[in-house]
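Researcher: Structure prediction, please.
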Amino acid sequence: MHPALLTLTMALLAASGQTPPQSAADGRAAYAPSPEDLVTVGDWPAIGKWMIDRHLRPAEWLGARVQGKALREPINVILLDSVARSADEARTRLLLACRAAGYKSREGHSSGYRGFLGGILFRQLPAPAGHAFSNEPFELHNNHGRIFGPFPLKEGWLFIGALSREWFNPLTKTEHVYVSFVQARDDFARKLDATTGFRIAGRVDLANSMADDPALTTGDHDGRAVVLKAQR
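Model: Predicted structure follows.
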């Protein structure tokens, strides 16, 4: 990254309470992803392929098992806001867009996740503990997710996100049962496209589908992220 852009990025992150990976404010070790856990799309900065948990490891979906394998949570949404004039405005616009699309900040979900973008470890949005963006209360079947960023680009502010669908089963130990990554990703994108200034601009391959790993899986995820760009 260019030194001037890096200085600007650090200043923006400090002002917004975000944590650069070199000096984690919570005292945990810095997250250093392997090259296999990063992907570059066009001129965008390196994107971490996975949502990161509170232990700074690639997140697994509440201990769920699919065909006997641990379920890893992929990044499957990318948002670019070329309208916002600051990081704070970009975050505010994102929160308002999610709410308008029916994805409110709702309680009843695991939290404390992070996303790796452009060498920076971003804390999740929404920020409140136990919250995620969700289209229904946690007691119902719902799509939910977390978004990370923004990272400053010449053309605007870049976010990444991880969305999944679950159904609520009060008879199980965890109560939340994994259903799909694809269904949640596509519904989130369609709702934002229909009700907000973010429009679907296509899909990009993040190479984060795990079909052949003997111990890990990404369920029905196809390795692609939907890209949404703000038009107003």
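Model: The chain is about 20% helix and 35% strand.
Researcher: Thanks, that helps.
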